[in-house]
C-alpha cells in the first residue's frame, strides 16, 4: 500500500467511526472528511467539488421541491386514509393500506409518507384495540421496499446513478431497478403478512402508555393564601429551577396558562401543574402555602385545550439538538413546547427532564402550542408524529394539490418516453410550479434538505479519493481473494453483506458511495457488467431492516410503536436475508 492509500484509509476509518458513534451530524462528518482529503492534496479542488455539480445530486434537490409540493397539500394522505377505512376486517384494511403503498413510495419521498401515516395508522389501530406495534414497522419496511422500484424511489438510487455517469457508464433507466425491486417487494409483503406479523410485538405506543399512567407524569399543587410569594413572578418564587420537576401549566379558574414563562405572576388559588420526576415533588410539599392535591382527577388529556396540545416528536439524525441537554437546547423557549417525558428503547428515561442528553430516535412527549404540529412538520430537528388537522387554507387549495400531482405524473411520463432526462424533467416541473405560483420561492427553499445534499455531495469526493489513490482497487482485490475460490455467488454475497453492514451502521447514501468504487473495480477485474454490481449495492444500501438507526423511516416509528432495538433485529433479519437472496439470484441470472 502507498502512503496516500494508507492516509485515505485512515480518513475513511475515522469517518465511519464518527458516524457510528454519532459524534456529530452525518453531513458534517462526511464534509469534514472531504475537507481533510482536499487540504492534504489527495484531491484537487475540482475533484472535491465534483459531487456538488453531479446531475444525480441536483436531481435530488429538484425532487425535494416537486414531491414536497405534492405532499404538503395532503391529497395522498386523505386518499390513503379513505382507502384504509373501507376495509371490513383487520387484514382487509391492512391489505388496502400496504398494497398501494409501495407504488406511492416508488415516486414520493419515503420520509414524509411515514411521518404523515404514522399518527394516522396509530390512531386507527388504537381505535380498534390493535397494538400500533403491529402496523408501524411494516409501514416503514414497505415504504423502503417500494423505494427500490424506480430510479426516483430514494436518494440512494439517484446517488448511485450519478456515480455511474461519473464513471462513464450509462446509469439506471427509470424502471431498471424494478427488475429486482418488484420481486423483493412482493416477497417482503408476503413475509410481513405471515411470519413477520407473528414476530412483531404487541406494545402500546409511548403516548398511550403515558396517558394511561398520568399520575407518574403530572402532579397538581394548590397555591394557598399563605404562600409567601403570591403576586411574584415564577422566577421570583423559585419555581423555575426545581430538581426533577418543572412547571408546565397554571390553571386559574377557567383560564389555562401553558408554556409558563418566568415572568408569569403567581396568584392565590392557582393550580400549578408539574411534570417530570413526580417522585421528587416532596421538596415542593415542604414549601409553605403549596399543597399537593391528592386524588386529583386531572389527566394528561385534560391539559389539551384550544391553546395547547399533546404532541409526539422523534429526534432525527440531523438534529441540532443532538449531544445537548434539553435545558442547554433551550427547548421550551425555542419551540414553544415543554418536554413532559423522554422515551428511549421503549423505556422512560427516569432523570430530570432538563438534564437528559438527546440522541437520535429519542421520542419526546410535548405539551406544545396549538400550531406546533403545523409549524414544525418540516423540521430537520425532529419528526413530528402527531396528526395535523388540515388547515382551512389547505382544504381550499385542493386544486393546487391536484395540479402539482399532475405536474409530477407528466414529468415521470416524459422520462418514461425518453423525451427528457430525469434532471431535465424535474427542472421543468419546478419551473411550472413556480410560474403557476403553486409554490413560492420560500417554500421551494424550505423543501430542499440541504443537509442531505451536503452529505451526498461530500461522499462523492470521498469515493473519488478511494478510486484515485487505488484504495478501491486494493479493497476489491481483498474481497476477490476471499470470495473467488468459492465462485461468483460468494463474491456477490460478500458485496451485498458489506454494503448492508455499512448502511445499518452509518447511512444508506454514504454506504453506497463507499461501495460503488469497489464494485466497479471488481466488475472490471472479472470482466462482468458493472450494472449488476451497482444494482446489488443500491438494493443493499436501501434495504435497511435490522436496526432502527440505519434508515430514517425505521427511526420515525421507533418510539410511536413502543419498539425495542431487538424488535428490529428479530423482525428485520429474516426479511433482510430474503431480500438478499432474491436480489442476488436475479442479478446473477439477468446481468451475468
TrEMBL record:
Keyword terms of this UniProt record: Membrane, Repeat, Transmembrane, Transmembrane helix, Transport
| Gene Ontology BP annotations | potassium ion transport
Any one Gene Ontology cellular component term annotated for this protein:
plasma membrane
Q: Where is the RCK C-terminal domain?
A: 206-290, 298-382
The protein's location, in the record's own words, is: Membrane
Q: Which GO terms describe its molecular function?
A: monoatomic cation transmembrane transporter activity
SUPFAM superfamilies tied to this protein: TrkA C-terminal domain-like
Segments traversing the membrane: 28-45, 57-74, 94-115, 135-154, 174-200, 403-436, 448-467, 479-499, 505-526, 533-551, 571-591
Q: How does it sit in the membrane?
A: Multi-pass membrane protein
Protein name per UniProt = SLC13 family permease
Q: Which organism is it from?
A: Planococcus donghaensis
Amino acid at each position: 500500500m502507498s502512503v496516500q492509500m494508507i492516509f485515505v484509509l485512515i480518513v475513511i476509518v475515522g469517518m465511519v467511526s464518527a458516524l457510528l458513534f454519532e459524534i456529530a451530524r452525518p453531513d458534517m462528518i462526511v464534509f469534514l472528511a472531504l475537507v481533510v482529503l482536499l487540504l492534504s492534496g489527495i484531491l484537487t479542488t475540482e475533484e472535491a467539488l465534483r459531487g456538488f455539480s453531479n446531475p444525480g445530486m441536483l436531481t435530488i434537490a429538484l425532487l425535494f421541491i416537486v414531491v414536497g409540493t405534492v405532499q404538503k397539500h395532503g391529497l395522498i394522505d386523505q386518499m390513503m386514509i379513505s382507502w384504509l377505512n373501507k376495509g371490513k376486517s383487520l387484514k382487509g384494511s391492512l391489505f388496502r393500506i400496504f398494497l398501494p403503498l409501495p407504488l406511492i413510495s416508488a415516486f414520493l419521498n419515503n420520509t414524509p409518507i411515514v411521518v404523515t401515516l404514522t399518527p394516522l395508522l396509530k390512531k386507527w389501530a388504537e381505535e380498534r384495540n390493535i397494538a400500533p406495534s403491529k402496523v408501524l414497522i411494516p409501514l416503514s419496511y414497505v415504504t423502503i421496499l417500494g423505494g427500490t422500484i424506480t430510479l426516483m424511489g430514494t436518494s440512494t438510487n439517484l446517488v448511485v446513478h450519478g456515480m455511474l455517469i461519473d464513471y462513464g457508464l450509462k446509469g439506471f433507466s427509470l424502471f431498471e431497478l424494478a427488475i429486482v425491486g418488484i420481486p423483493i417487494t412482493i416477497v417482503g409483503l408476503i413475509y410481513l403478512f405471515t411470519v413477520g406479523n407473528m414476530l412483531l410485538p404487541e406494545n402500546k405506543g409511548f403516548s398511550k402508555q403515558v396517558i394511561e399512567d398520568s399520575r407518574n407524569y403530572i402532579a397538581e399543587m394548590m397555591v394557598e393564601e399563605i404562600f409567601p410569594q403570591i403576586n411574584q413572578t415564577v422566577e421570583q418564587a423559585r419555581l423555575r429551577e426545581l430538581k426533577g420537576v418543572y412547571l408546565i401549566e397554571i390553571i386559574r379558574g377557567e383560564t389555562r396558562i401553558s408554556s409558563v414563562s418566568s415572568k408569569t405572576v403567581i396568584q392565590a388559588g392557582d393550580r400549578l401543574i408539574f411534570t417530570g420526576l413526580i417522585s421528587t415533588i416532596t421538596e415542593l410539599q415542604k414549601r409553605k402555602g403549596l399543597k399537593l392535591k391528592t386524588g386529583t382527577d386531572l389527566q394528561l388529556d385534560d391539559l389539551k385545550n384550544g391553546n395547547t396540545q399533546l404532541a409526539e416528536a422523534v429526534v432525527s439524525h440531523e438534529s441540532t439538538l443532538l449531544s445537548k441537554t434539553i435545558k442547554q437546547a433551550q427547548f421550551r423557549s425555542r419551540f414553544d413546547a415543554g418536554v413532559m417525558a423522554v422515551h428511549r428503547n421503549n423505556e422512560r428515561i427516569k432523570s430530570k427532564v432538563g438534564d437528559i442528553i438527546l440522541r437520535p430516535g429519542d421520542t419526546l412527549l410535548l405539551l406544545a402550542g396549538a400550531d406546533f404540529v403545523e409549524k414544525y412538520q418540516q423540521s430537520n430537528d425532529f419528526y413530528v408524529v402527531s396528526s395535523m388537522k388540515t388547515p382551512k387554507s389547505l382544504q381550499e387549495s385542493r386544486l393546487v394539490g391536484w395540479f402539482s400531482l399532475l405536474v409530477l405524473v407528466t414529468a415521470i411520463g416524459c422520462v418514461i418516453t425518453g423525451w427528457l432526462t430525469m434532471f431535465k424533467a424535474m427542472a421543468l416541473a419546478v419551473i411550472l410550479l413556480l410560474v403557476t405560483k403553486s409554490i413560492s420561492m420560500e417554500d421551494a427553499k424550505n423543501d430542499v434538505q440541504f443537509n442531505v445534499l451536503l452529505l451526498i455531495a461530500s461522499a462523492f469526493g470521498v469515493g473519488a479519493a478511494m478510486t484515485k489513490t487505488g484504495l478501491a482497487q486494493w479493497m476489491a482485490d481483498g474481497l476477490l481473494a476471499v470470495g473467488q475460490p468459492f465462485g461468483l455467488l460468494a463474491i456477490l454475497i460478500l458485496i451485498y453483506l458489506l454494503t448492508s453492514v455499512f448502511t445499518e451502521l452509518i447511512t444508506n447514501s454514504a454506504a453506497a458511495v463507499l461501495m460503488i468504487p469497489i464494485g466497479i473495480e471488481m466488475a472490471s477485474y472479472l470482466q462482468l457488467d458493472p450494472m449488476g454490481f451497482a444494482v446489488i449495492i443500491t438494493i443493499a444500501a436501501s434495504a435497511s431492516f435490522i436496526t432502527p438507526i440505519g434508515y430514517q423511516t425505521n427511526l420515525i416509528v421507533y418510539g410511536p410503536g413502543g419498539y425495542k432495538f431487538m424488535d428490529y433485529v428479530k423482525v428485520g433479519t429474516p426479511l433482510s436475508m430474503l431480500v438478499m437472496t432474491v436480489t442476488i439470484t436475479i442479478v446473477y441470472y439477468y446481468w451475468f
